[in-house]
């Protein structure tokens, strides 16, 4: 975390985006000795201790960030084993790789389930969503709960399935649409997921978010690449090339789709204005749309919520 003060608001379980915390570790500068927020249920220390997640503080995180801005993403090691030398820890860092590693299988659900929760009325910022009901099958590559809540608020009945769920089983459910969710890691390391996307696109409307967007890019025959340093945080300007509208978006990814590798018919709809990387796709013939960032605004601004409405319209036109 590059914000110097962490922990002063405490932790609230209503803000969690998954059924468990998948952090490998947390590095911060200053740990607040008290909490001051009416929604706080436990301290950061209590939260991490319950989940056996390592955290360290009194670290100059902004100096680390400046280093990363120059050298790109780097591998680090946290350890409580004092018997290990610095050289041994360095060797651990050198041997660990993220490229080519399947991280999806460690975060997906174990079995299909139905999702019913909408955005709580206290937090709902958009009214008068679709009165129609659409059945959406959502592939869980590490899906965020608020993506599911937003779709439900837009009138969707949702079946969530594991990352390795057969495309044939999904199509047998005759869904109105399929969502390919966000998730961690290298899309090139999960060829089974790419094959699933290939087997589904063109048959029903699909919506890809983050990892789902990258998998769609590969399924279309395109390539993805590891960025020098990815996009992380809630303040990234993205331009919708179709309208010229600029949204401030929340992003969290280390890989991107190479637009030059995409086939004819696949159109880049959004670009990240910080580096002009591909931030969205559509392919009218295949009935698909995708975004590289997180439109559900958790955390972040509500600018991109219209993306869910676009998916609804895609399913509605396909139903006619």
Key attributes of the depicted protein:
320 residues, alpha/beta, Glucose Oxidase, domain 1, Rossmann fold, ten-stranded mixed β-sheet, two-stranded parallel sheet, 14 strands, 26% strand, globular
Write the layout of secondary structure elements.
Blueprint: E1 5-6, E2 25-27, E3 30-31, H1 44-50, E4 54-56, H2 61-71, H3 86-95, E5 113-115, E6 134-140, H4 145-153, E7 156-162, H5 167-172, E8 177-180, H6 191-200, E9 206-209, H7 211-219, E10 223-240, E11 246-258, E12 267-272, E13 278-283, E14 288-291, H8 306-319
Parallel strand pairs: 1-3, 2-4, 6-7, 6-8, 8-9, 9-14
Antiparallel strand pairs: 5-7, 10-11, 10-12, 12-13, 13-14
Walk me through what this model shows.
- By secondary structure, the chain is α/β, with parallel strands linked by helices.
- It folds into 2 domains: 5-95, Glucose Oxidase, domain 1 (3-Layer(bba) Sandwich); 104-318, Class I glutamine amidotransferase (GATase) domain (Rossmann fold, 3-Layer(aba) Sandwich).
- Helices cover 24% and strands 26% of the residues.
- The chain is built from 8 helices and 14 strands.
- The chain has helices at 44-50, 61-71, 86-95, 145-153, 167-172, 191-200, 211-219, 306-319; strands at 5-6, 25-27, 30-31, 54-56, 113-115, 134-140, 156-162, 177-180, 206-209, 223-240, 246-258, 267-272, 278-283, 288-291.
- The chain has a 10-stranded mixed sheet with strand order 5-7-6-8-9-14-13-12-10-11, with helices on both faces. A two-stranded parallel sheet has the order 1-3.
- β13 and β14 form a beta hairpin.
- α6 (191-200) packs across α7.
- The longest helix is centred in the last third of the chain and has 14 residues, at 306-319.
- It is globular and about 65 Å long.
- The chain starts with a strand and ends with a helix.
- The model has no long low-confidence stretch (mean pLDDT 94).
């Amino acid at each position: 975390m590059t914000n110097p003060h962490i922990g002063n608001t405490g932790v609230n379980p209503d803000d969690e985006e998954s059924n468990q915390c998948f952090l490998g570790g947390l590095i911060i500068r200053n740990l607040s000795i008290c909490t001051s927020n009416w929604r706080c249920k436990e301290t950061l220390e209590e939260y991490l201790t319950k989940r056996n997640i390592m955290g360290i503080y009194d670290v100059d995180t902004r100096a680390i960030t400046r280093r990363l801005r120059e050298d790109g993403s780097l591998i680090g090691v946290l350890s409580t084993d004092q018997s290990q030398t610095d050289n041994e820890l360095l060797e651990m860092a050198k041997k660990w790789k993220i490229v080519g590693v399947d991280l999806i299988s460690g975060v997906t659900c174990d079995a299909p389930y139905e999702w019913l929760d909408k955005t709580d009325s206290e937090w709902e910022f958009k009214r008068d969503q679709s009165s129609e009901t659409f059945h959406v099958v959502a592939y869980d590559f590490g899906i965020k709960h608020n993506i599911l809540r937003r779709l439900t608020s837009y009138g969707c009945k949702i079946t969530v399935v594991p990352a390795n769920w057969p495309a044939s089983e999904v199509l047998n459910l005759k869904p109105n649409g399929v969502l390919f969710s966000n998730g961690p890691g290298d899309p090139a390391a999960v060829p089974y997921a790419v094959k699933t996307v290939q087997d589904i696109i063109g048959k029903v409307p699909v919506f890809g978010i983050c990892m789902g967007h990258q998998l769609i890019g590969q399924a279309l025959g395109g390539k993805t690449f590891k960025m020098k340093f990815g996009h992380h945080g809630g303040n990234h300007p993205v331009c919708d090339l179709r309208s010229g509208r600029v949204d401030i978006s929340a992003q969290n990814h280390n890989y991107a789709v190479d637009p030059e590798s995409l086939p004819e018919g696949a159109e880049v709809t959004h670009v990240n204005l910080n580096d002009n990387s591909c931030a969205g796709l559509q392919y009218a013939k295949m009935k698909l749309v995708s975004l590289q960032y997180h439109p559900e605004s958790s955390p972040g601004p509500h600018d991109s919520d219209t993306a869910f409405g676009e998916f609804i319209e895609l399913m509605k036109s396909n139903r006619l």
